[in-house]
Amino acid sequence: MLRVAVIGGGPSGSCAAEILAKAGIETWIFERKLDNAKPCGGAIPLCMVAEFELPESIIDRKVRNMRMISPSNREVDISLDNVYGTEQKSEYIGMCRREIMDAFMRDRAAELGANLVNGLVTQIETGSNREGPYTLTYSDYSSGESTGESKSLEVDLIIGADGANSRVAKAMDAGDYNVAIAFQERIKLPEKEMKYYENLAEMYVGTDVSPDFYGWVFPKYDHVAVGTGTMQKNQSLIKSLQVGVRERAQKRLVNGEVIKVEAHPIPEHPRPRRVVGRMALVGDAAGYVTKSSGEGIYFAAKSGRMCAEQIVKSSQGGKIIPSEKDLKEYLKKWDSEYGTTYKVLEILQNIFYSNDAAREAFVEMCDDKDVQRLTFDSYLYKKVVPMKPWQQIKLTMLTLGSWIRGRALTPDTYKPVPSAVRDDEEVNAMLAVSTIKGGIKVGNKKAMPEAMRGGLKPPSTDKTPAVLSTNGSENLEEKS
């Protein structure tokens, strides 16, 4: 019987282990932190809920309203009621906490027969020509001891679902890739402010919040997730960018209290090699995070499932050991189905996140109903509906007009957006007493946005992305 090790217990690893276990293949899934809370906006598309049979219990909020905020603080509201009609209330964006969703998917795989190991794989012996059999050395933490018990396991095939700093990728010499950095603070808000975010997610764009991405305020069960991301070349700016998000949204986050600080590397593009020998990469380890939107959860889960389905097929249900050629069939199917999507989103990011004039144009374009419909059809259902000729002409003219107006609207400095639930006098009085309690500490905050407009600071020479611990402290550590 085929023996498979799935290293990493996030959505990609859990979905792979689930498919393998259902087929009766002997499967181990390794996860060091069973309560891991990956710093992530936590938004999932509607199609994922049905496709992966996710229960409502893991969804904190069903968001039906998005608010895009430009560098000049122009606000564009996008309501799914307007996009799809008030008679159709089924569409929503699911907001999840990763520790809840990941645990559900991982436990489901274990219930179906996968061997769940609370352990950290520390060494992988790959055999002759990296073709196995593979010997894993790992620390088993199931006893609750802090050091872990050293153990080993031999398997025929490995699925690397162990994130941006993948040990499987290193073992198979998958090649390097650039990693962006995501930073997030979870902030508890006063009742009025939390009510405002009950069914609403906000996205901020501007050089102050990210030179190549966006900042977000996403609602969760009893708090909001406030974060930003930037590419590796700008990673030394990440704390200042987080301050930028907090400053722009400060009147809507008034009297908030940070309950957790998180950061994590995410891939900017796929690795040069995703299958070597009988080892295959999925999820972040493979580099399946989209440009522009930064979406990775759905594609992680989908890649894990597709890889496992190919293994089941090629192994005849676990009777034989698949070859490298067999595993590469998964890559062909993946690239055929999603390659164009990744390329289009990369082009859009290069155009609309290039400067503040382009960001102003981007937000203005989001006010168009046809643009909204195309965007949400693509995001919620992962389908691309070809535009009609008149829509293409309209979109071209809209882009040109928005770009011209965007250049005129680009601000010299960035200002906080007004509170949505309090008048200015009240919120200013509150801010005079206290802003946001806890979280990051960055000096000379007020000078940051204007200084950044004069040119970005040079990136750090340290190639290893810094990752904050998840207890709200400033202690930096490398995530393994």
Structure description:
With 480 residues, the chain is an alpha+beta fold. The protein has 15 helices and 21 strands. The strands form five sheets. It has a seven-stranded mixed β-sheet. The chain has two domains: 193 residues, FAD/NAD(P)-binding domain (3-Layer(bba) Sandwich), CATH 3.50.50; 250 residues, D-Amino Acid Oxidase, Chain A, domain 2, CATH 3.30.9. The chain is globular, with a radius of gyration of 23 Å.
Summarize it.
The protein is of the alpha+beta class and 480 residues long.
Count the E strands: 21
Amino- and carboxy-terminal Cα gap: 31 Å
The second-level CATH architecture of the largest domain is 2-Layer Sandwich
Query: Helix content range of the residues, please?
Result: 25-40%
Structural class: alpha+beta
CATH superfamily of the largest domain: D-Amino Acid Oxidase, subunit A, domain 2
* Unreliable parts: 444-480
Beta strand %: 15-25%
Radius of gyration: 23 Å
SSE inventory with pairings:
Layout: E1 3-7, H1 11-22, E2 26-30, E3 43-44, H2 46-51, E4 61-63, E5 65-69, E6 75-79, H3 80-84, E7 93-95, H4 98-111, E8 115-117, E9 119-125, E10 134-140, E11 149-155, E12 157-160, H5 167-171, E13 179-188, H6 191-196, E14 200-206, E15 210-219, E16 224-230, H7 238-248, E17 257-267, E18 275-276, E19 279-281, H8 283-286, H9 297-314, H10 324-352, H11 356-365, H12 369-381, H13 389-409, H14 424-433, H15 448-453, E20 467-468, E21 476-477
Parallel strand pairs: 1-2, 1-12, 2-8, 5-14, 12-19
Antiparallel strand pairs: 3-7, 4-7, 5-6, 9-10, 10-11, 13-16, 13-17, 14-15, 15-16, 18-19, 20-21
